[in-house]
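Suppose you are handed only these lines of text.
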Amino acid sequence: MSGAARILFVDHAGVLGGAELSLLDIAVAFRDRCEVVLFEHGPFETKLLEHGVSVVAIPSGAALRGVKKGTRLPSPTAIVGTVVLATHVARRAKKAALVYTNSPKAFLIGATAAALARRPVIWHLRDILDRSHFSASNLRLMTLTANARVSRIIANSHATADAFVAAGGRRDLVRVVHNGIDPAAFDRVDPTARLTVRRALGIPDDAFVVGSFSRLHPWKGQRVLLDALETLPDVHALIVGGALFSGEAEYEKELRHRAAQPTLAGRVHLLGARDDIPALMSACDLIAHTSTLPEPFGRVLVEALIARKPLVASDAGGVREVVQHMQTALLVQPGNSAALASAIMRLRREPKLAVSLASSGSSHVRERFTRDAMITGVMANVSDVLEHARR
Ligand code: UDP
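From them, the structure of the protein bound to uridine-5'-diphosphate can be written out as follows.
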């Protein structure tokens, strides 16, 4: 039986992006028999420790920071850094039965470590592997490594799975396990939070507020929301999320500059990274998901509907597996600020439609995207891989 086999989870990030929040739930479910390796210190490490998960940070220093999704060829420093890190991870992998990697960087290092330690490796794939996000050489490196070394790809959506196969990955390695969210924190929100949050931010009680809940990155499309807002004179925007990864500080500067312009000043509230998402969502009248590229899954879509908020989302990628146009949300062309503005206006003018979409959306995601179903799916794949490794 695979019951007591130890798992080594590997993630490169110390910050809390969607991939890390999802891994947090998984690691908690395995906490009696796992260790998490991160390549930097940070809030993710703190959260894991708070939940009683054993975690070790092996800071990678400059070696990994220089490696970007779009990098054409890794530098010699990055190659040496990768090998050194992989050796450290391999030492820990020897004490586990399986290496479970959670990001492209973690996968490349984890797969090398697993090869050194002679352990099977799973890649929980949470990225759309295509040319809009990755260089051709990085795509080739990832798919070749996956095809040769991985025992299982757990894709967080069919969109993610299909992109892996289109990039040259083996279809037989892939199983889809959608993300799931625990609604408890959303159901605990005090009904007074709506006004408390608004008053703390200086937003009038009766203003129409559109929320955006994503890390700040050009492809997450906060810029598109600001463009839409230019044509919606009395609408406020609550933009929640930090510039989590390197290179995004410039984008944050641009957003802050725009938010201060006379046409938007006082209506755009850039709050940075927050951990009180349920309370902040409760202060919104509508939530906008504005990614300009196909979203791999979009946890925030599920959260918005769990919070019973009307949702307007970009019609691409995994979004189509989470919500359906005119049944649970309004879907609009990615990057089209005019379409976004008119969908926002429509839901504002047609409150009955807004309430009905939010209510059927909430029932749908509460049934379909549960944390328990995600954990069950992950555990089944882990058991399966361990079973095969023993034969
Ligand atoms: N989020 C958060 N604090 C913020 C902004 C976002 O905790 O300030 C959370 C959000 O609630 C969601 C996750 O970050 O759970 C983002 O996941 P998603 O899949 O939408 O996007 P990703 O970051 O994985 O690209």
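What can we learn from it? The chain has two domains: 7-180+370-390, 184-368. The CA atoms of residues 178 and 343 lie 27 Å apart.
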